[in-house]
Amino acid sequence: MTENGKRTIGLIWSQTPDRVIGANGGIPWQIPEDVQHFQDVTSGRTIIMGRRTWDALPEQARVAPDRRTVVITRNPEWFAPGAERASSVEEALALTDPDEVWVLGGAEIFAAAVEFATVIVVTEVDTEVSGDAYAPEIPPQFVLAFTTGISRSSNGKDSFQFRSYARK
Ligand SMILES: NC(=O)c1ccc[n+]([C@@H]2O[C@H](COP(=O)([O-])OP(=O)(O)OC[C@H]3O[C@@H](n4cnc5c(N)ncnc54)[C@H](OP(=O)(O)O)[C@@H]3O)[C@@H](O)[C@H]2O)c1
Fold this sequence. Notes:
Blueprint: E1 9-15, E2 20-22, H1 32-42, E3 46-50, H2 51-56, E4 69-72, E5 84-86, H3 89-96, E6 101-103, H4 107-113, E7 119-125, E8 133-134, E9 142-147, E10 151-152, E11 159-167
Parallel strand pairs: 1-6, 1-7, 3-4, 3-6, 4-5
Antiparallel strand pairs: 2-8, 7-11, 9-11, 10-11
The chain binds NADP nicotinamide-adenine-dinucleotide phosphate.
Organism: Nocardia macrotermitis
GO biological process, one term: one-carbon metabolic process
Protein name: Dihydrofolate reductase
């Protein structure tokens, strides 16, 4: 729940300064600290993702016994053991009400889900890559609620910063 008693609907992504989140169906950086951060935020929570993000995940990361996984697809015949199917963001949110949910992407799903978000958690990755999937802009109804300092990743290449935005 948020401070005003509303259900938490979180969006979480990592992006470059140009808001790139993906390229060629994958994420073009590997930051162990970001993976850990993602797990800390979403562990045990209900997660919602688009079908292409589902396809991009390694099989062992798709479903976990301690949480619900909902995949959004227009294909009524889509099925995967351990996951639930929804045909829109609205349907996924109705299906999971009143769970705290975290929307994992990708670009199409973030664009459709941002209007419902109560919190947005962003990892700013200081790298320049060309991509084909982009995060939405943070809407003006959100304020920066929390930020860490800039850290250097143990991957030896990238610097990153965690930011959290709350709906005003
Ligand atoms: N950096 C990050 O934090 C992060 C996080 C997640 C993903 N990514 C990256 O983002 C990229 C994937 O993003 P994407 O935009 O291509 O795909 P996506 O949002 O993961 O999934 C798109 C699919 O979702 C379904 N869909 C989308 N809008 C819908 C709607 N309004 N109603 C019903 N179904 C809908 C469709 O599935 P069907 O075609 O099955 O109908 C569509 O093909 C990848 O590169 C991935 O690695 C990055």
